Structures are given as structure tokens and as C-alpha cells.
Amino acid sequence: MARRERSRLPAPERRRQIIEAATALVAERGFWGLSMQDVADACGLTVPGLLHHVGSKDGLLIAVLEHRDAEDHRAIGDPPPSDLRALCAALVRRNATQPEIVRLFAVLAAESLAPDHPAHDYFAARQQGVLDALTALAKPVSARPEALARQIIATMDGLQLQWLRAPAGTDLVAMWEAAAQMLFAGPTASAGRPARSR
């Protein structure tokens, strides 16, 4: 039965199915609570059949994370908005449509603080990459671009946690827009325009 079902899907479609099933399970249970048997069952596969597509549990986790990043890049646009405030707004709007994925990243980001977590290096590199990208975009609008980039990341992450805790009564996009008014105001930053020289 499992063999017949497996033959119906081309390898890329099967891999996408596996990633989607694993994404939902990790968002619900965290990586340490993830069972390869549960992922296999969700896809109508045996565990060896599952491993044929992803290599290992660690490989599956990295595939889930990389798939999410690729999907976000496609949704936001290629190239993405070059205006810092517009990019942040696009990211928040995107995240507001996918609470399960945001929960997945929140859970894994916390778990991966442990040095032996398989996603530890991935999240460390991703955090630095995001910081570098936002810092570069902040240079035209802030005298302290790295500080602004760090404040944006902290604000976005904090608002998302509040939203995940109480999604029914929380408007993530509205909360971000209110925070952005403060982040992009003042003598060193403006709403997407270079700060005026004195």
C-alpha cells in the first residue's frame, strides 16, 4: 500500500509533502518532540522511505527551514523592496497570513539556542544575515543603522510572540505599524526617507 502510494508522486512533490507534514508537526511539538514515524505516517510512507528523501531527521529539519525561507522570498518579491520600512511591512503582512510557520520558527529559534541543536548554526547564520541586510538598508535613514536594525528585529520578534500567544485579540499588522511610527521617527530615522542633514 505504502509502496503504491509512494510511486504516484514524483520525487519533488513527495519531498514537498514531507516538508509540509514535518512543518506542521514541528510547529506543534518542537524538534525534540518530532517523530520520524509520525512524519512517515502523515505521508503514507515507511521510515526508510522517508529517509530516502531527506537523509536524516536533522536533514529534514534544515529542509523545512530552507523551504520556509525560499517561500517567503518568493512571496515578498525578487528582488525584495529596497526601502527598509516597506520591506518590514511586507514581512509582517506575510507572517500574519501564516501563524503556524511563525510558530515553527519561534519554537525552533528558542530550541536552537542550545549549542548541540541541529539548527543552532543555521539560526546563528540566519540571524547575522538578517542583521546585515537590515543594517545595509538602514544606512540611508539612520545615523546608527545597526542599532536600528537590531531594534527592528527585537520589535518584530516580540510582537510576533504576543500575537502567537493571543491571536484572536491581536492584530499583528496594526501593532507593527504602530511600532514602526516610533522606530522610523526621530532625528536619526524617518519613514523611508533619508534623515535630513543639519
Please provide a written account of the structure.
The chain contains 10 helices and no strands. With 198 residues, it is mainly alpha-helical. The chain folds into 2 domains: 1-71, Tetracycline Repressor, domain 2 (Orthogonal Bundle); 79-198, no CATH class. Helix 2 crosses helix 3 (36-43) and helix 6 packs antiparallel against helix 10. The radius of gyration is 19 Å and the shape is elongated. The N and C termini lie far apart (74 Å). InterPro entries: Homeodomain-like_sf, HTH-type_TetR-like_transc_reg, HTH_TetR, Tet_transcr_reg_TetR-rel_C_sf. Residues 35-54 bind DNA. This is TetR/AcrR family transcriptional regulator.
Structure summarized in a few sentences:
With 198 residues, this protein is mainly alpha-helical.
> In total, how many beta strands?
0
Report Rg.
19 Å
Report on the biggest sheet.
Answer: none
Helix content: over 70%
Properties at a glance:
198 residues; mainly alpha; Tetracycline Repressor, domain 2; 2 domains; 10 helices; 71% helix; elongated; disordered N terminus; disordered C terminus
Q: Can you lay out the helices and strands and say which pair or pack?
A:
Blueprint: H1 2-8, H2 11-29, H3 36-43, H4 47-54, H5 57-76, H6 84-96, H7 99-111, H8 120-138, H9 145-165, H10 172-183
Helix pairs in contact: 2-3, 2-5, 2-7, 6-10, 7-9, 8-9, 9-10
Protein name: TetR/AcrR family transcriptional regulator
InterPro entries: Homeodomain-like_sf, HTH-type_TetR-like_transc_reg, HTH_TetR, Tet_transcr_reg_TetR-rel_C_sf
DNA-binding region: 35-54
